[in-house]
Write a structure and sequence with these properties.
single chain; 403 residues; 17 helices; 78% helix; binds aspartic acid
């Protein structure tokens, strides 16, 4: 009997998860999903998290070594970063357009923020953030899973191995061999993805049907419209224009990673699945090994859209009318905040504080949307991951390697 493909298994798990979630919600036993189903999803996400640091480290170093030429690494990096930054800036504009349409039409609810509470993270400013990307202790970066630092370490180590030439042969072989082991481990863990998707979906559907969801429904709809328009407009168009790939083919190829990101709400945890999808869409292995880990750390278009929509909504709750100049500040800070957002569940909301601070909106207002963050997060992570895959396919084409 032919084995069912992973995307198909994931799709069935998603539908089953929704069905079981609805039964538990309407049957009044939602707590069963929290107590007995979610823990299996947590086990699965823990397994993915435990390999994230070695995957990013080895994948990027292996990608750099396979390119075997610092000039090519530089050219791929520049193209990747330009693609990431341009698409993120477009995402901000799309987010702001939708948020302003909804706000202008009076569709956003005006919530009383007097009792809103949220403990925001302190930001030390741009220069301090820049300095903190460079690690002082490599092992600490690994144990803290500080992915921006892990990326910097990978770039330096990969570059140094290339520069050392023949003398680094042992290191090269070690990296390739260790990466092969990690890849094997990844494919085993990914084969468990349907379990993760089913359990998380059942839990979300059963537990999120609260009043707050209804009151914030239009803000959620606004963000999801932004996500969908961005995916269709920017990713499928760039795949069509630059790679000549039909949108249907692109989304079909990216499907497994999109669903997986949607349920796990972590770009970093989705990395192994994204790699398989990118390979299926024709991304060159060395380029995907470099672009995807980088993207799962710094490319967050969904997060940028969410931050723009949330900012306009919270500003209206605070009775602040944003001027065009302030909107430009939103585009710049949301782009930077999304770069600084870690690819883990809920990180985009923590970084939202940075955008609010720049505009003088009280960060405690985040308390108004914290309860439904997972719903926003599902869509934004799905978009974040799709952007990484689109970039790896485009950069492959630009590097002239796609056959
Ligand atoms: N969960 C998102 C991701 O992993 C980040 C965010 O919270 O916006 O891509």
């Amino acid at each position: 009997m032919k084995k069912m493909s992973l995307p198909m298994q994931i799709l069935i798990a998603l539908v089953l998860g929704i069905a079981v979630g609805l039964i538990c919600y309407f049957g009044g036993f939602a707590s069963i999903t929290t107590n007995y189903l979610k823990p299996f999803g947590d086990i699965f996400v823990n397994l993915l998290k435990f390999i994230v640091v070695p995957v990013v480290l080895l994948s990027m170093i292996d990608g750099i070594i396979s390119m075997n030429d610092m000039r090519k690494v530089g050219s791929v990096s520049v193209k990747t970063v330009v693609y990431f930054l341009c698409t993120t800036a477009i995402a901000c504009v799309i987010g702001l357009v939708f948020a302003n349409i909804f706000n202008g039409a009076g569709l956003f609810p005006v919530l009383d923020a007097a009792s809103a509470e949220y403990d925001a993270k302190e930001f030390g400013g741009f220069m301090a953030t820049l300095v903190s990307i460079f690690p002082t202790n490599m092992w600490k970066s690994f144990t803290d899973a500080n992915m921006l630092q892990v990326i910097v370490i990978s770039l330096f180590l990969g570059g140094a191995i290339l520069a050392a030439g023949e003398r680094a042969k042992l290191c090269r072989d070690f990296v390739s061999s260790a990466y092969a082991v990690i890849e094997q481990l990844m494919s085993f863990i990914i084969s468990l993805a349907p379990i993760g998707v089913f359990t998380y979906m059942a839990w979300v559907v059963a537990t999120q049907g609260s009043e707050i969801l209804v009151s914030l429904l239009l803000v959620i709809v606004c963000a999801y419209l932004g996500y969908i328009v961005h995916a269709v407009l920017v990713y499928s168009l760039s795949a069509k224009i630059f790679v000549g790939m039909s949108p249907v083919k692109f989304f079909k190829g990216a499907f497994a990673a999109m669903i997986f990101a949607f349920t796990s709400t972590s770009s970093a945890a989705t990395l192994p699945v994204s790699k398989e999808c990118a390979a299926e869409l024709g991304a060159e292995d060395d380029i995907a090994s470099f672009v995807l880990p980088l993207g799962s750390t710094i490319n967050m278009d969904g997060t940028a859209i969410y931050q723009c929509v949330a900012t306009v909504f919270l500003a209206s709750c605070a009775n602040i009318h944003l001027t065009i100049g302030q909107m430009i500040i939103v585009v710049v800070t949301a782009t930077l905040a999304s770069v600084g957002t870690a690819g883990v569940s809920g990180a985009g909301m923590i970084m939202l504080a940075m955008v609010l601070e720049a505009l003088g909106i009280p960060v405690a207002y985040i308390g108004l949307i914290v309860a439904v963050d997972r719903i926003f997060d599902m869509g934004r992570t799905c978009l974040n991951v799709t952007g990484d895959i689109a970039c790896s396919v485009c950069v492959t084409k630009w590097e002239g390697k796609k056959e």
